[in-house]
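Dissemination and training. As part of the outreach component of the grant, students in the summer workshop were shown how a complex can be specified as a set of sequence lines and then modelled as a single object. The example used during the hands-on session is reproduced here so that future cohorts can follow it. Participants entered these lines:
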Amino acid sequence: MIIVQEADFDSAALLARLRGQVGAEAGAIATFTGYVRDFAPDQATETLFLEHYPGMCERELHEIADTARQRWQLAGTVIAHRVGALPRGAQIVFVAAASAHRGDAFRGCEYMIDALKTRAPFWKRETLSGGRSFWVEQREADHQRTQSWDAGDTPKEPT
Amino acid sequence: MSGATINLLYFARVAELVGARGEAWPLAETVTGAQLLQALQARYPQLEPAARLKLAINQTHAKPSAPIRPGDEVAIFEPVTGG
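and obtained this result:
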């Protein structure tokens, strides 16, 4: 299930839909939710604007989910990502991986959010409470984690 | 051939620097991604160094060595920051 939308999402409803899809095949579902946080302890974020490339975005997310499903034998997946202007504390992204066992569910879920951060065409623009506004830069650690996954490893770089 | 173009799309900071969301770019023959970025930088010096920018050709991530042909949709952007 791939969802890209401006509206907020109900993670409990997404989880219920996934459970409905996978039934008793999956003994484990791991989920990740990302929220708009302050840019830094002393620099409160007021708004995070998410721009995306419609079409390519959905294609990349489908490919990321397909890769995760094959690599960890997942019974089902969800990736939901919001776009547009998001206030401080709002939900940005929801990822879920369903599997027979927890190890595959955890790793599949972690892979999907890591891959999304370096491959899915989204861009964040921060506006701080003081009015300063800027495009966020990709973190080197995220890039390295994707390289580790691509090399067949489980990444050890800090998130 | 005067009518041959590619459909260029600009995202995020690149769109701000260029001052447009995209444009039809004349392209008579195949070039590499790196050559296109060089040509863009010549037209829009504010993109310098353009070699740091990423490309997608027909909605797929592409390396700087990838060929771009007339009729392609080519997106230019900085490294992505979703999630």
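The longest strand of chain A covers residues 91-99. Students were then asked to discuss how this feature might be tested experimentally.
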